[in-house]
Amino acid sequence: MAGSVHDSLIYSKLFNAGEAGRLFTDSAEVRSMLIVEGALAKAQGQLGMIPEVSAAFIHRASLEIPLDPGGLAEGVGKNGVPVPSLVAGFRKAMEAPEHAQYVHWGATSQDIADTGQMLRLRQLLALCEDGLKELLAALATQASDHAELPMAGRTYGQFATPVSFGSHVAAWGWPLLDLLKELPALREGSLWVSLSGAAGTGAEFAGKGAELRAALAKGLGLGDPGRSWHADRGPVLRIAGWLARMAQVLGKMGDDLILMAQSSASEVKLSASGGSSTMPQKQNPVQPSALLALARQVMGLKAVMDGAGMPRQERDGAAWFTEWLVFPQLCLSASAALETARAMAPGLSPKAPEMRAVFTEALGLLHAEALSFRLAGQMPRPEAQAKVKELAQQVLATGRPLGELAAEALPDLDLSGLFTPEEQMGDAPANARAFAAAVAAI
C-alpha cells in the first residue's frame, strides 16, 4: 500500500480529495514559496530596503522560473527545511547575481514556509466553502422533500419517538451550516502572513519590520497579525480544528447512514453501493463507511497536531516536522470526506414503506411517551407514566399493540391521532423546513 491513500493508484478514488489534492504536492509547495519570495522582494523594493530594479527582477523571476522539487531533497535532508535549497536554486536559475543577492533579504525559512502554506490553505478553504454550499443545498432539498416522512427516532440505539427523515437530515446539516458561517472569521483570524526574521524579532529589517510585514500581507492578500507567530501555532491549529469538526460532522452522517442501510433496518437506499467478492446479495454502504473512516483518521491527526502545538522556545524543529507529517493528511482527508458527502447526498432515497413498517412492528411502543402525556390530563403525571409502563410491559408479554391495550384499559381516554406517526412528530417537520430555509438564505 502507498504511504498515503490520497497518492495511491489503488485507493485514491475511494478517498478522493478532489481539487484539494493539487494543493498538497511538492510542486504546489515550491510554487507557493517562490510566490512569497517574489512578493517579499517587491515589498522591500517599494520601501527602499533593496534596489527597486532588483525587486522587480526577483518578482518577475518568481512567477516565471520553475524549480524541480527533487532538487531540494538533499538540502532538506541536511538542513531540515526546504527554503535554503530553494533560495540557492532560485538564485542560480535567475542567472543575475547582481539581483539574486537580494532574494530572501532578512527573512527566515519559517517565514517563507508558513506564508506559502497559508496561500495554499486559503485555496483549500475556498474549495471547502464551495463544497459545503453544494452539500448543504442537496441536504436542504432532502430535508424539505421529506419533512413530513415519519421515521423512528432512536436514542441509545433504541426506538424513541417519531421524527421525520427530513429532520434527521437537517440534524446533519445544521452544524455544517454553522461551519460555513464561521469561515469569514476563520480566514481573518488564521490566514496570516509570517515575517519576523530569524528569532521572531524582525531585527534584520532595520526598523521597518512592521511596515514590511503589512506590505507583504497586502501584496499576498493575507492578514497582518501585527506580531510574530513562529512559536504560536494558533492559526494552523484553528484551521485544523475547523477541518476536523467538518470531518466529524460528516462522519456522524456516514455512521447514521450505515445503520439506516443495514439489512435489519433498510430504511435508506444509496445511489452508489459496493458489492462483495463472494456474496452477490450485498449492497455495501461504501461511501458512508469512507466518511466514518476519514473522520476517525482526521480526529486522530488533529490530536497529533494539538500535541505539536506547544513548540519550544522561539522555534521547535520537532514540533514543526510533526506538522509536516500530519497536517497535509488531515487537510486531504477532511477534503475527501466533504467530496464524498457532496457526491452522495443528492442520491439518498429514504424507503418510506420500510420506515412506516417500523411503527407497526414496534407494536405502537414508539407512542408510549405521547400516551403518557395524554393520560396525564386525567391523572398526575407519575401515575400516568406508571400506567403506560405497565401497558408497555403487557405489549412485550402478549405481542398485542399498545393501541389495543390502551383502548381496553383506558376506555374514557381520547386516543385519536395518538398512534398516527404523522401526527406525533412534534416540531420535526418545521425543523426540517427551517433548515432548508436557512440554507436558501445563505
Automatic annotation (TrEMBL):
Record InterPro entries: AdenyloSucc_lyase_C, Fumarate_lyase_CS, Fumarate_lyase_fam, Fumarate_lyase_N, L-Aspartase-like
Domain of life from the UniProt record: Bacteria
SMART domains attached to this UniProt entry: ADSL_C
Pfam families linked to this entry: Lyase_1
Residue span, Adenylosuccinate lyase C-terminal domain: 363-436
Keywords tagged on the record: Isomerase
GO molecular function, one term: lyase activity
Family of the protein in this entry: Belongs to the class-II fumarase/aspartase family.
Protein's recorded name: 3-carboxy-cis,cis-muconate cycloisomerase
Lineage: Bacteria, Pseudomonadati, Pseudomonadota, Alphaproteobacteria, Rhodobacterales
